[in-house]
Amino acid sequence: MDQPATEKTTNGITNGDGHENPLIAFMPSGRRGRFPVGTPILQAARSLGVDIDSVCGGRGICGRCQVVVSEGEFAKLGVTSKSDHLSDFSAVEQRYGDKRGLKPGRRLSCSAHVLGDLVIDVPSDSQVHKQVVRKRAEMRTIELDPIITLHYVEVAEPDMHDPTGDLQRLEKALKEQWKLENLDCDIRAIQGLQQALRKGEWKVTVAVHLGKQITAVWPGFNDKVYGLAVDVGSTTIAGHLCDLATGDVVASSGLMNPQIRFGEDLMSRVSYVMMNPGGEVEMTKAVRDALNDMVQAVAKEAGCSIESILECTFVGNPIMHHLLLGINPVELGGAPFALATDGPVQIWATEIDLKIHPNARIYVLPCIAGHVGADTAGVILSESPHESDEMTLIVDVGTNAEIVLGNKHRLLAASSPTGPAFEGAQISCGQRAAPGAIERVRIDRATLEPRFKVIGCDLWSDHPDFKAKTEGLGVTGVCGSGIIECLAEMYLSGIITQDGVVDGAMAAKSPRVQQDGRTFTYLLHDGEPQLKITQNDVRAIQLAKAALYAGARLLMDHLGIDKLDRITLAGAFGSHIDVKYAMVLGMIPDCDLAKVTSAGNAAGTGARIALLNRASRDEIVRVVKQVEKIETAVEPKFQEHFVGAMAIPHKTAPYPHLAKAVNLPAPKAAAPMDEGDGGRRRRRRG
Amino acid sequence: MDQPATEKTTNGITNGDGHENPLIAFMPSGRRGRFPVGTPILQAARSLGVDIDSVCGGRGICGRCQVVVSEGEFAKLGVTSKSDHLSDFSAVEQRYGDKRGLKPGRRLSCSAHVLGDLVIDVPSDSQVHKQVVRKRAEMRTIELDPIITLHYVEVAEPDMHDPTGDLQRLEKALKEQWKLENLDCDIRAIQGLQQALRKGEWKVTVAVHLGKQITAVWPGFNDKVYGLAVDVGSTTIAGHLCDLATGDVVASSGLMNPQIRFGEDLMSRVSYVMMNPGGEVEMTKAVRDALNDMVQAVAKEAGCSIESILECTFVGNPIMHHLLLGINPVELGGAPFALATDGPVQIWATEIDLKIHPNARIYVLPCIAGHVGADTAGVILSESPHESDEMTLIVDVGTNAEIVLGNKHRLLAASSPTGPAFEGAQISCGQRAAPGAIERVRIDRATLEPRFKVIGCDLWSDHPDFKAKTEGLGVTGVCGSGIIECLAEMYLSGIITQDGVVDGAMAAKSPRVQQDGRTFTYLLHDGEPQLKITQNDVRAIQLAKAALYAGARLLMDHLGIDKLDRITLAGAFGSHIDVKYAMVLGMIPDCDLAKVTSAGNAAGTGARIALLNRASRDEIVRVVKQVEKIETAVEPKFQEHFVGAMAIPHKTAPYPHLAKAVNLPAPKAAAPMDEGDGGRRRRRRG
Question: What segments bear the compositional bias annotation Polar residues (chains A, B) (predicted)?
C-alpha cells in the first residue's frame, strides 16, 4: 500500500495547485488527516492507523471494510461532510452488493475515493478489533484480536528465468500486499500449496497463525474460519464454536465426559490409573474421542466443515488437563500434587488426535497449582478480578471447590476439598441435575409442608397441574441446588438447628419429621421413590460447605480482610444455585446479596476469550504467575475455620447483609433425645 | 557458575594476602587469566570463554572436560607450569577413571583445582567445537557446532508450599545450571517428564534442540545421541549415522531407492504420477519405508536404539525432495518447473513417518531451482566453492547433470539434460554398476585388441586367471565408467573419429571393427552376452557429454571466463570415473589434470555437515539465495555450445592440459562408406 501524500495532521496541506486537500475524519477513533482527491478511503484509514478490517486487501471482494458517511456540519473540525464528497458507487461495489448485499448508506472503503471533506463512520462490524458483546452486563466485553488472520493475495506465476519456489513467491506477495514478513509455513500447507495456487489461478487466501506461521492456503477467496473453545469438566464437556472473524458463537455443544465410566469424581479416576496400568491411556482416548464427537456436532450445527476449524482452546481442572494432553495424572493423586507443567501448552491439534484442520493449533490455558487448574485460569480471564478495585471472591464448585480471592492489587487462589456432596453424591436422595430432579424447595414455616420444582417442569409441586405435567418425568431425586435450598429452608423453618441437627421436637408439628433410629429425618416427597433428608445428608452438606467457607476464609485471612465487595459463583452448579440460599447455609461469607452473582460457565468463557483475543494469552500467563497459591492442606488455620463453619450459617461469623434479606431463626438447641453424630461433635467441641 | 574473582588479564592480580594469584593459560587458544588458588580449571576456562565440553555440568560424570598439564618453563608467559600446580587426583576423578578409564596425564578439569601457575592443554576431543577429520586432504574439515546439546541437571523436588510444575522446575534448573532460558518443550517430552524425573531421582539429562527446544529428557546421565545424514538419490539412498557428540560416522548404509519400480529415471517417475493419480502417495510411502529400513540397519550396526536418533538431515534432487516431503512432483515434470518451496524445510520426523526418537527433527537442505536440488546445495556445502579463490567447476552427473561454477565472488548453477546414457541406459550393452559390469577398458593402439576389468574382480581380462576368477560373476555388460573409458580408448586408438564415427577403414586392421548395416561396431567382448559398441551407442554418449559440456561452457560464458582452476566430479558416477578419460571424451572443459578430482558423495557429505554444524544451515541458505540460477533450456547459446561439443573432445575448444597428458590423435575423416546419422549431422552443419 502506498504512503499517502499528506501529513497526518489537520494543518492545511495543499495539493499541487495550491488548494487545500480534503480533510477526512474517522469515527469513533477521531483520527483525521488531509488526503489528495482520489485517495481510496481504506488507504487513508490505514495510513492513519484507523482500525478497518479487510481480508481481500482492497479488492472489493470481502466487504469487511464497509463505512458510512456522517453527513452534516462539523464545526469543531471546520468541515461539512456530504455523501457526494465520496466518489460515485463503483462497479466493484455494485458487484459486491448484488452478490452479498450492501445496506443503504454503506460503502466499500477500498473502492470509494475522497472528493471533498468527509466524516467517515467505521461501524463496529468493520473493525478488526471489534467488541464481542457478552450477555451479562457486569462483564467486560471481549475485544477481537484474532489469533488467525486471513489474507487474500495475488501471487506471481513461476518464471523459468527466475526459478523461485511457489512458497517463496507467496511469501513475497504477503510481504508486498500485507507487510507480513519472516513467516514459516506448515509442511502440510506446502504439500497443498501448488494445487491451491493453480486452482485459484494464482489468487489464494492464506491463514496466518499469530502473525508468524502460514497454516492454510485456499484457492481464491475464503473468509470463513472457525475456532472452538472447550471446557473439559469432569462431568461435562462444553464447547462453543466461534466465527473467528466476528467472534460470534455459531454452535454450542455439551456432552457427558465419557471418563465417567472410569470413576464419577476425579480422585476415583486417578485411583483407576493407579490400579490399572495404562488406564490413563484409555481415559485420554475416551476424552479425545468425545471431543471429536463434539467437533462433528458443532460443525454440523454451524454448517461448516471440520477442516474450517483452525484453532482450539481448552480449559479444565489439572487432572482433565493432564488426561487431555496424554500426561499420566498419578502425580496429582497424592502430595505434593506436582503438575507436569503449569505453563500454557500450545501444540498441534493432531498431537491430541483432534480431527479438525490438519494444521490447526491447540492452546491450553495454564494451570495454577496441583488442585487449581486451567479452568480457574479461564475463570480469572473471564471475571477479571485482577482488573477490579472490588475485593472479589470467586468460587467454582465441583468435587474440589476452586477459590479465587482478590482485586487488582493481589490475587490468591486455593482449592478446598468439598467432596462431591454438592453434586448430589453422598446424599441419600441425591442425583445429578437431570429431568425429574428436584431443584427448588420451599417449606411452609407454620405447617412444615414442602413444595418443590423439578427439572423439566416450570410448575411448583402444589400446582393442580403438576402431577399431570410431570407424569413422564417423575420425581426422581434431589440435585445439588435442590439440596442447598431444602436444607436452607429446613433451617429457616426450624427443622434443623444452627448446629445441623434435625430437631425431633418438630415431629410434634408435622408428620414429615420422622424418627429414624437415634436421629430424625425430613420427608421431602412421599412417592416412588420416597425422598427423605436424613441426618447424615445434613452432615454431608455441612462438611462440604464448611470446607468451602473455610477455604474462602483462609484466603481472607491471608489478605487480612473481613469483608467482601463481590462474590461470583462459577460453574454449572453456581449458575443453578439460588445465591441467597447458599448464603443462608453459610457456603460463602456474608456479602451484599446484590453483589452475589452466578457467572455461569466462566471457565468456558475464559477459553473463548483465549480463542478470540491474542493478548489475553499473555495476560493470563502473567496473571497466573502472579497469583499467590495457597495450599489449604498445609495451613493449620484451615481446620479451625472448618470447625467454625460447620454451623449454619456459621458458629460465630455475623451475616449482617443476609439478616437484612432473610428472617434468620434465633439459635436453639435440638430436643434432648437427639443423639446423632452432630450431638457427639458438639460435646467434643465443648 | 560463579564469576571468577580475577580480571581476564595477565596483569598481576593479587589475592587477599597481597600475593599474586596463579596464572592459567589454555592451549591451543592461548587465552589466559589469573585465578585464586582453589578455582576449578573448568570454571576458569569457562570464564575465559575457552571451548571445553561438558554434559554433566562439572559433576565428574561425563568426562568430556579432560585436560592435560603442559609442563615446563614458558618464558613468553613468564611462568613455570607443573603437574603439582594442580590439586591431587580427586575421588571424583578416581571414580570416573575406574568406571570409564582416564588416560595417563589426563585430568577432569571440573574436579582439578589450581594451586599454582599452569599451562593447560585442551585436547581436541575435549572441545565442543572439535574438528571432524575428513578423508580427503583438499577438503575443509567439519567443525562440530551441535544442533542438539545435552545437559545433565539436578532438579528441585516439588513442594506443596510452592506448587510449580515439574517442567517449570526443570527450566529453572537449566537456567541456573546451564544459563539456558526461554526454552519451549515438546508435548511428548512433557508427557514423559514426571516419570523421568522420579526414575532419575531428580537428576536427568535434557536434550536441547538449537538452544531453544527441550526435545528429550532421560533419567540420570546420558551422553549418547545420534543423527542421520541421508542423500536420497533416484537410484540409491545413502545414509550415515553420526555420533552427535564426536561427529564420528558410527554406521553407514546404502540401499536401492524402491521407487525404481515406478520408473528408472526421474522423468519416468513423474510420468507415473501423471498417469496414475495417487502415484505420488505410493512413491512417498516407498521412500519413507526404505528410510525406516535404513534406520533399523544403521541403528543395529551402531548398537544403538532408534530412539537415540534425534536429528536427521536430507539432501536430494528436487523430485526426490518433493516425494520425500509428500509434495506432488508433477509441477517439476514440465516448464516452468516450479518448486513448491526452494527454502530449507525443518519439520518433525513424524511428519515424514520416520520412526526414530518421537521428538526428532528433520532438516532438508534448500533446493536451488526446479532442476537443481538440495543435493546440489549439499555439494556446495561440502565443496565450498563459495569460500575458494579458485574458479571451480563442480559437476554431479546423473540423469540430469547438476553443474555449479564459480568461486567466492560469484556462484552459478544449472542443470543440463544429459539423459541417462552415462548411467548405462540407452546403450546397447549398458548396465548399472554391479558385479560383472565392465568398468575399465584399454585398447591396444596397434592391434585394437581390448582388455578390461569387471566390477568384482581386480584382474585385467588378459590375465591368465581372469576367466577363473570371473566365472561366478560373468561379463554381463558395460557400466557408465566402462563406456566412458571404452569410447575414449576407441577415439585414442583411431576406431572412432573426432566426429564420433566408427571408422570402417579400421575393419582392415582388426576383425573387432565390424560392419552393421550402414554403420560399424566395435566388438568389446565376444562371449555370452556379446558386448558391442554400436554407432548408436557412440551417438548417445556424444549427446550426453555434449549436453554436460555445453552446460558448463554456458556458465563459463556467464562469468566471462575461458579457464578453470579446478574441476570436481561429484556423485557415485563421478567417483568411479577416470577423470582423464572423461576429459578425453570432452565431457568437461580442459583443466590441469592434477586439479580434476572426484568428490565422492559430496551431496551426502553436505547433509552430514548440516547435521553436525549449526551455522552451516544458515550458511547454505544464504549461499543458495546468492547462487545465480541459469536455466539452460531458455539460453539460446546452449544449443550452439551443444553442437560444438558433439565432437571428441570438442570441435574447436583446445585441450592444452589434456594434450600434455595424453597423446591425442590428429583429426581425420572416417572412411567414405560411413553414412550413419553422424554423417548426416555433419552435412547439416557443413
Answer: 1-14
Chain-chain contact of A166 with B341 (C-beta, under 8 angstroms): yes
Q: Rounded to whole angstroms, how far apart are CA atoms B538 and A368? A: 78
* B168 inside domain: yes
C-alpha cell at B120: 593447560
- The model's confidence at residue A2, banded by pLDDT at 50, 70 and 90, is very low
**Secondary structure element (H or E) that encloses residue B519, with its range:** strand B519-525
Residue A6 pLDDT > 50: no
Look up the domain containing A432 and give its range: 421-540
Compute the count of residue pairs across chains A and B with CB atoms less than 8 Å apart: 139
> Is B203 in contact with B152 (CB distance < 8 Å)?
yes
Nearest to B362 by CA among B107, B147, B580: B147
Secondary structure (H, E, C), B114-150: ECCCEEEECCHHHCCCCEECCCCCCCCCEECECCEEE
Question: What mean pLDDT do residues A454-463 have?
Answer: 94
Chain B: residue whose CA lies nearest to A187:
B347
Cβ within 8 Å of residue A324, ≥6 positions away: A232, A284, A287, A288, A314, A316, A352, A364
Q: Do B165 and A340 touch (CB under 8 A)?
A: yes
The verdict on residue A673 lying in a domain is no
Residue among B403, B371, B622 at smallest CA distance from A163: B371
User: Does A168 contact B341 at a Cβ distance shorter than 8 Å?
Assistant: yes
Say if the Cβ atoms of A195 and B328 lie within 8 Å.
yes
C-alpha cell at B325: 516431503
Grid cell, residue A526, equals: 412421599
Domain count, chain A: 5
What would you report as the CA-atom Rg of chain B, rounded to the nearest whole angstrom? 31
Same-domain check for residues B449 and B384: no
Q: Is A676's pLDDT higher than 50?
A: no
The 10 Å CB-count burial string (b at 16+, else e) for B569-607 is bbbbbbebbbbebbbbbbbbbbbbbebbbbbbbbbbbbb
| All three cell numbers of A29 | 477513533
Report the pLDDT value the prediction gives residue A38, as an integer from 0 to 100.
95
Write the ipTM. Answer: 0.87
Q: Is residue B277 located within the same domain as residue B354?
A: yes
Is the pLDDT at B481 greater than 70, yes or no?
yes
Number of other residues whose CB lies within 10 A of the CB of residue B297: 17
Task: Decide: helix, strand or coil at residue A565.
Answer: coil
Say if residue A505 is in the same domain as residue A644. Answer: no
Do the strands A213-219 and A203-209 form a parallel or antiparallel pair, or are they unpaired?
Answer: antiparallel
Separation between Cα atoms, residue B566 and residue B595, nearest integer Å: 5
Instruction: Enumerate chain A positions whose Cβ falls within 8 A of a Cβ in B.
Output: 157-168, 185, 187, 190-191, 193-195, 325-328, 331, 335-343, 345, 347, 351, 367, 369-370, 629, 631, 633-634
Q: How far apart are CA A333 and CA A273, in angstroms?
A: 10
The DSSP symbol for B204 reads E
Distance from CA of A602 to the nearest CA of B (A): 24
Residue A65 grid cell: 471494510
Q: For A162, which residue in chain B has the nearest alpha carbon?
A: B629
Query: Which CATH number does the domain housing residue B152 bear?
Result: 3.10.20.880
Q: Select from A540, A559, A579 the last residue of a domain.
A: A540
Mean pLDDT over residues A508-515, rounded?
95
Instruction: Locate the chain A residue with the closest alpha carbon to B192.
Output: A327
Joined grid coordinates for residue A609: 476469550
Q: Is B340's CB within 8 Å of A193's CB?
A: yes
- Grid coordinates given for B278: 495417487
Domain shared by A241 and A352, yes or no = yes
Gap between the Cα atoms of A419 and B44, Å rounded: 58
Tell me whether residue B131 is in a domain: no
Query: Which residue of chain B has the CA closest to A628?
Result: B162
Q: Give the type of residue at B262.
A: F
Residue type, A383: E
Are B54 and B77 members of one domain?
A: yes
Q: Convert the pLDDT of each residue in A283-296 to its tens digit.
A: 999 999 999 999 99
Instruction: Give domain status of residue B683, yes or no.
Output: no
